[in-house]
Design a protein that fits this description.
Layout (H helix, E strand, L loop, with lengths): L2 H13 L4 E10 L29 H18 L12 E5 L3 H14 L37 H12 L1 H9 L1 H11 L6 H16 L14 H10 L7 H23 L12 E6 L1 H10 L13 E8 L5 E8 L5 E3 L8 E2 H7 L7 H7 L7 H39 L11
Helix pairs in contact: 2-3, 4-9, 7-8, 9-10
Keywords: Disulfide bond, Glycoprotein, Hydrolase, Membrane, Signal, Transmembrane, Transmembrane helix
Family: Belongs to the histidine acid phosphatase family.
Enzyme class: hydrolase
């Protein structure tokens, strides 16, 4: 590393020492878990091989989040009071056992009961609420509420030349995995599921089947990493997939600095979200910060809203996928990204609940198509008007010709 760059990194905290926090948003992946869905020929498909049921948080996962909670307490101890209060923090989780349990484990590390909050001398823990919503009804954090327009765009993406080339490139891999696993594998997501299962089994020191030597990890890793980029591969996909969560982040920041008394109940110091590796990747994609990888257990995205002595409010983005958090720099903005710039850079993917409901409908017409339809309507209307004008002129001309040819008129009979 360049000595000047190193010096800047070392001195950067000193420059911001007098700056103060206004709010912190924390989004993390759950901790260590068992495989969600072992493949049909998996030698470790029986639950007897595992400490808990499939897809469940293990004791290792609980400890990972307990430690993350302590790390957060150490980092934000001067900002977030030691004593829990519902006025300081709001925690939300997807409606999945492993994310809910991760949230509770994290809070156990973040809030050790003190004083009057000690309710049982034998238990160094206190219950703290974690809010959730059924997955199929949650478009914000679970991101699984049905959105026809998003599904249509995904279908179009997979039919694109780029993804057809990917399918052709890995056709033999898909066929090989299908043969060896007993499960039909024909896309990126299915490959990632098998890769993830093998990764966990290897992590637990199980001997992998001999056939895996040919494709794991090297042959599958690139696709597994790519799979986390696919849900937000375009900005329109990102807007429909992650835009509601980004909108919520921005609303929290505005609430934190609002002087409106009506926002006092909404104002929190920390907003915490317990979710999945896909959620972490989606948020990083929305921020244009995702580098192809598989987000590890307890990986964490942090948004810090701060202000300096001049009153300038700015956002720091950090990504913790190991022991320490790494500060990230948004494209087209400095590391201490001014709040107004941060909001402007994310405007293309930010969406409100009403807009999301409207834009998810399949009868929604995109601007380009609407413009083309307007042009066609104008051209059609003009053509019809010209045709009618032509017909009227023909009618008039024909009528005039007939009258000019009629030279004899019968006079009325005088007797009548």
């Amino acid at each position: 590393m360049n000595p000047l760059h190193l010096a800047i990194l070392l001195l950067a905290p000193l420059f911001a020492a007098s700056d103060e926090l206004d709010a912190v948003i924390v989004l993390y992946r759950h901790g260590d878990r068992t495989p969600v869905d072992p493949y049909p020929t998996d030698p470790y498909r029986n639950t007897s091989y595992w400490p808990v049921g499939f897809g469940q948080l293990t004791n290792i996962g609980k400890q990972q989040h307990f430690e993350l909670g302590k790390w957060l307490r150490n980092r934000y101890g001067d900002f977030l009071p030691d004593k829990y209060s519902e006025e300081d923090i709001y925690v939300r989780s997807t409606d999945v056992d492993r994310t809910l349990m991760s949230a509770y484990s994290n809070l156990a590390g973040l809030y050790e009961p003190r004083g009057g909050q000690i309710w049982n001398a034998n238990i160094d823990w206190q219950p703290i609420p974690v809010h959730t919503k059924p997955e199929k009804e949650d478009p914000v954090l679970a991101m699984k509420k049905h959105c026809p327009r998003y599904n249509q765009l995904m279908s179009q993406l997979f039919l694109s030349k780029e993804f057809q080339n990917i399918a052709n490139k890995y056709k033999e891999l898909y066929e090989y995995l299908t043969q060896m696993t007993g499960k039909t594998v024909n896309d990126i997501a299915q490959t990632e599921y098998i890769f993830n299962t093998l990764f966990i089994e290897e992590l637990y020191n199980y001997t992998l089947p001999e056939w895996t030597n040919k494709v794991y990890p090297t042959g599958m890793q690139e696709l597994a990493q790519l799979s986390f980029a696919v849900p937000c591969y375009t900005r329109e996909l990102t807007r429909l997939k992650t835009g509601l969560l980004i909108n919520e982040f921005i609303e929290h920041m505005h609430e934190a600095i609002s002087e409106n008394a009506d926002n006092e109940k909404k104002r929190k110091k920390v907003w915490m979200y317990s979710a999945h590796d896909t959620t972490v990747a989606n948020v990083l994609s929305a921020l244009r910060l995702f580098e192809h990888h598989c987000p590890p257990y307890a990986s964490t995205v942090i948004l810090e809203l701060k202000h300096n002595e001049n009153g300038l409010r700015y956002v720091n983005v950090l990504y913790k996928n190991s022991t320490e958090a790494r500060q990230m720099r948004l494209p087209e903005c400095e590391e201490n990204c001014p709040l107004n710039n941060f909001v402007a850079l994310l405007r293309d993917v930010t969406i409100t609940p009403d807009e999301w409901e409207e834009d998810c409908e399949l009868d929604r017409i995109d601007p380009a198509t609407m413009s083309m339809m307007k042009q066609m309507i104008v051209i059609g209307s003009t053509s019809i008007a010209l045709l009618l004008t032509f017909c009227i002129l023909i009618y008039i001309l024909c009528g005039t010709t007939k009258k000019s040819q009629q030279t004899y008129f019968r006079l009325p009979d005088s007797e009548i």
